[in-house]
Specification:
The structure is a single chain. The protein is α/β, with parallel strands linked by helices and 339 residues long. It is built from twelve helices and 15 strands. Strands 8, 9, 10, 11, 12, 13, 14 and 15 form an eight-stranded mixed sheet that branches. A seven-stranded parallel sheet has the order 3-2-1-4-5-7-6, sandwiched between helices. Strand 2, helix 2 (37-44) and strand 3 (49-51) form a beta-alpha-beta unit. The protein is globular, with a radius of gyration of 20 Å. It starts with a strand and ends in a 10-residue tail after the last helix. 48% of the residues are buried. The protein binds 1,4-dihydronicotinamide adenine dinucleotide and 1,3-bisphosphoglyceric acid. 1,3-bisphosphoglyceric acid is lined by residues 106, 136-139, 165, 298.
Length: 339
């Protein structure tokens, strides 16, 4: 499968690297606006670069070779993964992707694609589609969690989630808050609940605030079941689901910063942690309800889903894809159930 990546920022460069690590895919190139340090590194690594139209000369005058513009990259690709800023993907769709296959990110409105996607939740709905939207980081984490809990043998009645959102990604030096806690948005629900419902038809309400950290998001989640689940059945469901890690206090996991340090110690590229980081000690049962907290590494959690979205569009069976992606990205564990 020939895959091109348009937009080479926080998400795009990670997705491009994941494509490079995936043996059944070939990275046809990446398209960018600016001839900056990221472009220079891509060139040094031999990744073919394409420019946003009108920017070719800016690249060439900076000594960075480009092979053409976005249209040239699209024509060489079976699927394009668009990882441009919110709203640009929709513009690019009309300009470049008509009659082609494209994957969009969660910053786009759901209507940009034929289906909003999470690999665990609704992989098969993306099969054979031309336009698929991988939902955003928080929505991906909630969709994975709900899918895992739905496999516990207990029916979910409703989900209520409180999201502490990181204020910015680590490199975003102009974004805040820097000394505040901001209702994000000030209205309830936040967009995440409705967004989960584009993937899973579940009763869900979400509330979000933004805080001055860059490491990860934190979710405080309450799931009510039709009957009382045992804590063991919940832990078993989470532990056996791919892309969910349960991290316990006795192993030193008491904060989000420690999750990122763990990813670094594991030698994960860029210190990325692509799994839901569920704090095992937080999992508790009150009547029919489960409470838990999970960390969400916003820079990387959607990367495996982008790879699976491409395979779903090309018709690969669900578990074959999820397992192949997890093996390629170093997420595979024999303790997990792939199927
Ligand atoms: N950063 C995050 O935490 C997450 C972001 N997302 C979503 O992923 C998408 C991308 O977000 P980020 O990677 O954070 O953005 P970013 O700003 O880090 O990167 C966007 C890249 O696209 C380039 N670009 C801008 N206009 C372009 C155009 N017309 N054509 C080609 N490239 C263009 C920019 O130069 C930049 O390299 C958004 O939809 C966002 O909502 C999803 C999950 C997490
Ligand atoms: O997709 C994200 O968040 P979301 O799941 O809250 O929409 C990313 O963290 C990007 O969020 P931003 O809109 O603060 O850049």
């Amino acid at each position: 499968m020939r895959v091109g990546v348009v937009g080479y920022g926080t998400i795009g460069k990670r997705v491009a690297d994941a494509v490079l690590r995936t043996s059944d895919m070939q990275l046809t190139g990446v398209a960018k606006t600016s001839p900056d340090y990221e472009a220079a590194i891509a060139m040094r690594r031999g990744i073919p670069l394409y420019a946003v139209p009108g920017r070719e000369e800016a690249f060439r005058s900076s000594g960075i070779e480009v092979r053409g513009t976005i249209s040239d990259l699209v024509s060489k690709s079976d699927v394009v993964i668009d990882a441009t800023p919110d709203g640009v993907g929709e513009e690019n769709k009309g300009k470049y992707y008509v009659g082609r296959r494209a994957v969009f990110q969660g910053g786009e409105e759901a209507y940009v694609a034929e289906v909003s996607f999470n690999a665990l939740a609704n992989y098969d709905e993306a099969k054979g589609k031309s336009y698929v939207r991988v939902v955003s980081c928080n929505t991906t984490a909630l969709s994975r969690l709900i899918s895992a809990l739905a496999s516990s043998g207990h029916s979910i009645r409703k989900v209520r989630a409180f999201l502490v959102r990181r204020g910015a990604d680590p490199r975003e030096h102009k974004k805040g808050p820097i000394n505040d806690v901001v209702p994000n948005p000030v209205t309830i629900p936040s967009h995440h609940g409705p967004d989960v419902r584009t993937v899973i038809p579940v009763d869900i309400v979400t509330v979000a605030v933004a805080v001055p950290v860059t490491v990860m998001h934190l979710h405080m989640v309450n799931v009510e079941f039709e009957d009382r689940p045992s804590r063991d059945s919940i832990i078993e469901a989470l532990a056996s689901t791919p892309r969910i890690s349960i991290l316990y206090s006795k192993m030193g996991f008491n904060s989000l910063a420690q999750v990122i340090e763990y990813a670094r110690d594991l030698g994960r590229e860029r210190g990325d942690f692509m799994e839901n980081a569920v704090f095992g000690d937080s999992i508790s049962i009150q009547g029919n309800e489960v409470y838990l907290m999970q960390g969400v590494h916003q820079e990387s959690i959607v990367v495996p889903e982008n790879i699976d979205a491409v395979r779903a569009m090309m018709g690969t069976p669900k578990w074959e894809s999820i397992m192949a992606t997890d093996k390629a990205l170093g997420l595979y564990s024999s303790d997990k159930r792939y199927g």
